[in-house]
Amino acid sequence: MKITNGKDFWAGLMFVAFGVAFMLVSRNYAMGTSVRMGPAYFPTMLGGLLAVLGGVVLFRAFVTRTQNPLRVFPFVLWRVIAGLALGVFAYYTQPSHDANIVWEIGHALVAGLSVGLIFAAFGERSLWVILFSVVIFGYVLKPLGLVAAVVLLVVISAWGGHEFKWKEVTILSVSLAIFAVLAFVKGLGLPMNVWPSLWE
Amino acid sequence: MESLFANLALGFGVALSIQNLLYCLLGVLLGTLIGVLPGIGPVATIAMLLPVTFTLNPTSALIMLAGIYYGAQYGGSTTAILVNIPGESSSVVTCLDGYQMARQGRAGPALGIAAIGSFFAGCVATVIIALFAPPLAEVALKFGPAEYFSLMVLGLIAATVLAHGSLIKAIAMVLLGLLLGLVGTDVNSGVARFSFGVSELSDGIGFVSVAMGVFGFAEIIANLEQKEKREIFTKKVSNLLPSLQDFKDSWASILRGTALGSFLGILPGGGALLASFAAYTLEKKVSKNSANFGKGAIQGVAAPESANNAGAQTSFIPLLTLGIPSNPVMALMIGAMMIQGIAPGPQVMTERPQLFWGMIASMWVGNLMLVILNLPLIGMWIKLLMVPYRILYPSILVFCCIGVYSISNSPFDVMQTAAFGVVGYIFVKLECEPAPLILGFILGPLMEENLRRAMLLSRGDALVFFQRPISLTMLVIAGILLAIVLAPAVRKKREEAFVEA
Lengths: 200, 501
Prior knowledge:
Chain A has 200 residues and is an all-alpha fold.
């Protein structure tokens, strides 16, 4: 048996994994009867169906004439494992609300590294740089304010593209920051800090 | 008939209020803008703007969002004709002849006929909605849970049949979407399902996060992987009005495109994309001028452009009457309605006639705005086309991120969206269409609810779905659709059709 269609192989595996996972987690909930369906009834049904269809896709990967390499996208396994490990570590060492700022920053760095590693496992630079810039934005918006968050988002995401011109990126980030403040905070009245919260 | 005019009068009264006119204008302008810009579609834009619509009243919000969708169909053709890149997936076929016309120095007439065809189609589609929606809604009011469940099965099956790529994968994506839609608190038992103790997940996975991650972010990332190359015809756009000969050549195509597009838009799974492809294929078959297709035939621009606009609008019929989305944009519209506290379904028409008829009337108003605005504004759109993608995508990201963050003012939604960005990227790489997933996602809870009710009423007898005539009919149609597509001959044709496209 040889895998001819790598894309189907991974897609099939993915569907089987999702189907089985939903079925397994559903076992924690009440099944009920067909008259009075419990919370587990419908997801178990769907999960089973998904796993079966995933199996068909998986099987097709071996018999089809469509040729696709098994290596669909660059994937680095150790980054996922390291990222997940750091993530678990970060989850169990969450600082309490009154923890000091050094501890909080340290924790944020570890959590950020964990997320970054998981994204970076997929190798493609545009993917992980873009998503990482988005995550950074989400985390710095409250402590550092909208202006800093937009500038960081633009600079980091621009770095994920083909060309990076400092002058252009600077102008773009400043003008987008001004526009965001005017449109979203002044115009639509979204409750966001404009400047770092320490200043205000 | 009389009530139709009374209803339309009510609708125009709503649509012509200053406030709604402004939101309609904003919607069509935004729609044209994102239609012109390649690399961002109406799905991502509507997802981006959903949080903003919290602050508007429901009618204005829906009028604006609808404007984005059909505005995008207009804008998409401009890019297709001038740059040979479909600004919108539904204008892929417009590239074929539109770009050739531009190369022959006839960009103006191509743009003109596209706008005129779209306007005509928009007018016809508005009338069709006004005529067909009320009777359909009346039928739908008689639906019980069994009928609703079967209808959703039919809708989802039809959506997978019309999706391109592998059928099994599309169905698997629907199932995955249904499952993801079930995450969160179960209404009947109050159990928080699949939330793993994360309190944010007990309200369910955010719809905006899924849509924006899978469509928006994944799209940007995929665009960044390929180098951009553009050749724009800008100097020769003069004299937008097509000649008399052009009109003579294309009026029949516009009629055929409108008819076909209106019909395909109503079908579950249909919409602008399918309509434009089908119209081009049909036109190529029936036109006397078929040898000229692909070399700048004006019919090859007129037919698909009319069809995609007609299809975009009639796809509102299943949404407004049955509460069933036929494509991802309609799924987002349902999301917008639910955010506003409106349960989508046939009762919308009777309970909120102002919203229903106001929206329909606004479509005609919006189309008129588009044709008036678009022709003189074309110079501005062309300038926008010169903006390189490396400036565009960080700007898009900024809007997406602020929009997502503002849903609940916490980083959680942003993280969730990023996670779905990864998922969407994997889907793209594994050739799994995300559209069926999003339909499943929105229908998941509804389907479970109706399945439960139907089974409760029938005392656990699953045969109820086959005993009630309407329900049976829909399941049979779904079965036939599946059987047809799985038949080897059709399967081959279908694959060819999508490859050609």
